[in-house]
Design brief:
Length: 727
């Protein structure tokens, strides 16, 4: 007979006593269970005690999380969080440096537990820590010279405890004084400071900027880009990551009118070239967190283009009209131009109209009207002028080449530039906020100060080349744009390290090559639509689905490392989840860092029987998406979120590292529950494997026409004399 659902068998440790095996009744109040444990060891004042996990997180057991206790868990009887918080509050004020250091070390460790954190904060512990940071550094200034290691450790543990306590979101960031901000900023501004202190200080500054508008203004006054740059020139990637995170936070929270000014400062300080030299091209791999921060910086930089992208051209603005005149002048540079004043107004208008037509504008009489659509607005005109001035030979060649062709085969430069700018903005998602999970940065955009404009210059030349290869006419304009988009997207997926490398990738992706790729893909997806083939597909589809199911379950058995997202992404914790080989239990547990390879089952403390799973929900139906307002608004995070619901009001919440892992896990969990696998990945895998299987089965029928209808069944023979009787 199975044990009652509410009974959990655990081991409980106690200092200076033998461990006990015990059955915990989850229906009983936790205080009654603790009293029972204390009575077993003859300990008085049970209200001063609590239970915590003896392994892994060491978090306290509370009424809220007690349902997470699993059979076989090892617990420890320890001092209650309130008592522990009170003792530590007193110990960190000790006059003994050694005692103070040990107390701060314990505080830094315990502050990760929200139960302890709440008790310590109730004792006004945050204020005590900020006072220690503000005044303690001055108080121990003299001791610093003779006890530098001790002083550095003390400050490091103080800042670590502060970061962990604030991370729980119990206390508002708006409560901190200017003196505290100045002190934290001074640690960042010092040329020689302990790495751990610098790391915590950068994390605090970033959180201040992201969580409070008032603190953003104060931090922005204390920290300059020039003071952050030296930290990027070091060799510690973690410090570089935190530094870029602070720059991103300042960038993200800056008012619209300040962002361009800040971008100009970043350009003056040569931030891009420093990142390229010391981060991207450094002789070490870029970790996920650094990749995310580079991606955020890339997105924020491109978002500076949004203002021009959404600005319509004013046909009456002479300065804007002069840009169009400049495009005409560079392209045609008519010798007679100085004498134009002598010609009639009508003659000049006629000449301008003819030239604007050659430049490929839709509105030949008033080209300014072409730039009234947003997006791309004035950004398209900016790109055209940049191309004309910085790649003048290529610009003149393209314009003159097309103006001398037959009308039906000319590539309209003006119209192409406008549509291309719009397309590139869509590809780079200009104007969208950065995703909280994406790591998709492109090294080539860090190789040039005007990377978007250079990107455009390469792509407009590609468009002209593709137009010629396709022998396109004006009716084929949209087809050409689709091919160019495919060429650009395919080249970007290879992550070229420079713009020149991107250009060479495009050279290999000619229209002919794109046709070959499309034909190959079409062969994999189509061509097998006849009735016999469809019937064969229907017959073998269950085998393929079973194969996909086994692959998904095998991947769940291997397991995946998930990230716990919170308000400070750099301090994220990792956790690992995997399915047991017999497909009956999910093992999961917290990790200190991202693992290399698989994590063994025995190192994952928590278990969830598959039989207990009630449902799998995704997206906005997930409990953790309903709880977190900031995450709820982020479309990409929503698309990666899923939760396992089990027991009564219990859930295991996930945010997949990418779309592929999301599909693997949702498919695998649905397969375990006997439900259909509905992900895009399953559909793609099914199409690919079905196509391959069909091709293999039809190898012997090459060049044989398969009829749409089955051949007729012949009439029965008049006699069966031809049958050979084996008996």
């Amino acid at each position: 007979m199975p044990p009652p659902v509410d009974i959990v068998k655990v081991a409980i440790e106690c200092p200076d006593a033998y461990p006990k095996l015990m059955e915990i009744d989850q229906k009983k109040p936790l205080s009654a269970i603790i009293k029972e444990v204390c009575d077993g060891w003859s300990l008085a004042n049970h209200e001063y005690f609590a239970l915590q996990y003896a392994e892994g997180s060491n978090f306290y057991i509370t009424e809220k999380n007690r349902n997470e206790i699993k059979n076989g868990a090892i617990l420890r009887l320890t001092t209650s969080p309130a008592q522990n918080a009170q003792q530590l509050h007193e110990r960190i004020q000790s006059s003994s440096m050694d005692a103070k250091l040990e107390a701060l070390k314990d505080l830094a460790s315990l502050s990760r537990d929200v139960t302890f954190a709440q008790e310590f904060i109730n004792l006004d512990g945050i204020s005590l820590l900020t006072q220690m940071v503000e005044s303690g550094t001055e108080r121990y200034q003299k001791l610093q010279k003779i006890m530098k290691p001790c002083f550095g450790d003390m400050l490091s543990f103080t800042l670590t405890a502060f970061v962990e306590l604030m991370d729980h979101g119990i206390v508002s960031w708006d409560t901190f004084s200017v003196a505290f901000i100045k002190k934290i900023a001074s640690f960042v501004n010092k040329s020689a400071i302990d790495i751990s202190i610098l790391q915590r200080s950068l994390a605090i500054l970033e959180s201040m900027v992201l969580n409070s508008h008032d603190l953003y203004q104060k931090v922005a006054q204390e920290i300059t880009i020039g003071q952050l740059i030296p930290h990027l020139q070091g060799t510690d990637q973690e410090i570089q990551t935190y530094t870029i995170a602070v720059i991103n936070a300042l960038f993200l929270k800056a008012p619209d009118e300040r962002r361009q000014e800040m971008a100009n400062i970043l350009a003056q300080k040569q931030l891009r070239s420093i990142i390229l030299t010391h981060v991207i091209r450094a002789q070490r791999a870029i970790n996920n967190e650094m990749a995310h921060q580079l991606y955020v910086l890339q997105v924020l930089t491109f978002n500076l283009l949004e203002d021009r992208m959404m600005t319509k051209m004013d046909p009456q603005d002479q300065a804007q009209r002069d840009i169009i005149f400049e495009l005409r002048r560079i392209a045609f540079d008519a010798e007679s131009e100085p004498n134009n004043n002598s010609g009639s107004m009508e003659k000049r208008k006629s000449m301008y109209t003819r030239d604007y037509k050659k430049l490929g504008f839709i509105n030949h009489v008033n080209p300014a009207m072409d730039f009234t659509q947003t997006p791309p607005g004035m950004l398209a005109l900016d790109n055209m002028l940049y191309f004309a001035k910085h790649h003048q030979d290529a610009y003149i060649r393209i314009v003159l080449e097309n103006s001398s062709r037959e009308d039906k085969h000319e590539c309209p430069f003006g119209r192409s530039s406008i549509e291309l700018t719009k397309m590139l903005c869509e590809i780079l998602k200009v104007g969208e906020l950065p995703s909280e999970t994406c790591n998709d940065f492109h090294p080539m955009f860090f190789t040039h100060d005007r990377s978007f404009e250079e990107f455009f210059c390469i792509c407009i030349q590609l468009l002209n080349k593709t137009w010629k290869e396709m022998r396109a006419t004006s009716e084929d304009f949209n087809k050409v744009m689709q091919v160019v988009k495919e060429q650009v997207m395919r080249a970007l997926t290879t992550k070229p390290s420079s713009l020149d490398q991107f250009k060479s990738k495009l050279q290999n992706l000619s229209y002919t090559e794109i046709l070959k790729i499309r034909q190959s893909e079409r062969m994999n997806q189509e061509d097998f639509q006849s009735r016999p083939i469809l019937e064969l597909k229907e017959k073998i589809q269950p085998e393929i689905l079973e194969l996909i199911k086994q692959q998904r379950l095998n991947r769940l058995v291997e397991g995946t490392c998930f990230r716990k997202l919170n308000s400070r992404r750099r301090q994220d914790k990792f956790w690992y989840c995997r399915l047991s080989p017999n497909h009956k239990v999910l093992h999961y547990g917290d990790l200190e860092e991202s693992p290399q390879g698989e994590v063994p089952h025995d190192s994952l403390q928590d278990k969830l029987p598959v039989a207990d799973i009630k449902a799998v929900v995704t997206g906005k139906d997930c409990p953790h998406m309903k709880e977190k307002g900031a995450l709820k608004q982020n479309k990409e995070v929503l698309e990666l979120a899923f939760s396992i619901l089990y027991d009564s009001n219990c859930q295991l919440n996930f945010i997949a590292p990418d779309k592929h892992e999301y599909c693997i896990w949702t498919d695998g969990l649905n397969a375990l529950l006997g439900k259909d696998m509905m992900s895009d990945l399953t559909r793609n895998d099914l199409d690919t494997l079905l196509s391959m299987e069909i091709k293999l089965r039809l190898l012997d029928l090459e060049n044989i026409q398969i009829p749409d209808a089955p051949p007729p069944i012949p009439k029965e023979p008049s006699n069966y004399d031809f049958v050979y009787d084996c008996n």
